[in-house]
């Protein structure tokens, strides 16, 4: 079987050459909507959920003590899964639009002309169940990613501010936020990539002949099993470099901006 893309640089070149800038930006609209739903939920609810867990298990607020990793992981995981569930239809359309190609077909070709066209066709063929196909895989993906991302960032920020405060890296320093988020990006990509592979395959498969579920994978666990048994364990890390090149800068910019917004809110609101 001929692979249309061998690495990140070659994929950029091939897509850009054959489809131009528009091809490289496929799925941008539903991608924006998904990120708003996902990150708006998980970042907005993380601190309140974490505070509830700290008070329930320790009797103290989360601001009055060092980070407790299991509680941070639980808060991040719950918020990530909630955000993924809300944004799942947009992730579904985004994945299918990005996989569509006239010169190098990857997976089943759905050929949506726009985000609204994709949502309309999915609703017509499968109703609400069709719109939320693959949601369980997306929740596993976002839950794993958010639990590691949010908890690791909290721990790294606390560690850096405690040990490097004498060099100006205090809790409110942009440098602290940058270093903590840079370290976090690598760990979250390592944990998240297998779930990313599975969720992409769940979303991009065609419907079964009966119209209920996917033709290749019935659920994420079966997808995990089939992928590893036929392609080996490291198939779960396909696209790792491309994933990190997206997720690394995203993590850094997200946390740096979030911290600045929080500081602005504390100062002026």
UniProtKB/TrEMBL annotation:
- Name assigned to this protein: Mitochondrial oxaloacetate carrier protein
